[in-house]
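Support request, please re-run this one:
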Amino acid sequence: MPHYPYRDDGQLLWDAIKDYVREYLGLYYGANDLEDDGELQAWAQSLAAPDGGKLKGISLPVSLDGLVELVTIVIFTCGPLHSAINFAQYEYMAFTPNMPLAAYSKITARDSDTVAPVGPGALLPTLPPPKRAAEQLSTIFVLSAYRFDRLGYYTFEDPAAQAVVERFQQRLNVVERQIDLNNTKRLIPYTYLKPSLVINSISI
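Re-run finished. Output below.
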């Protein structure tokens, strides 16, 4: 698929996050140190357990490469992936007829091979009443209007990792410039994965 902005911009962020995670974890773990970390191994076991996280594909005991992959997945899911979905909601869902959260009258099932065009008279009864439409607008606004933090910028300090964090921030600036360049070649700019607009966590 030649035009897939989420994939292309997301890969830039994934690579930056993975390199950051590897460098950060490398401050505290050597290749053979993880097996001796009982708490870390117990955490990985609980993630993989059928009565725990039920995550598939976790090799136990977890290796440094496995931990890098796992932490990268967590950060990418809570940051870029969530931002791409959450902050796109307003653009597509604030105008209720574009994406109503429910249908308010029955929709007659018909054979799709013989469907005649449907006019406004058939569609209007399915749309939410004004009060419900206003509630949808309000909810979507609250969910998608505020960004409380920014990927790569943290309120805590780890002096040993300061240089690693700064390199990550610089890499994110490079990614942002690349996404801006990508957007000059797109029919519609895709801004949801610009690092300056991506949050650290699911902080809504």
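Residues 43 and 162 are 26 Å apart (CA to CA). The chain is about 50% helix and 0% strand.
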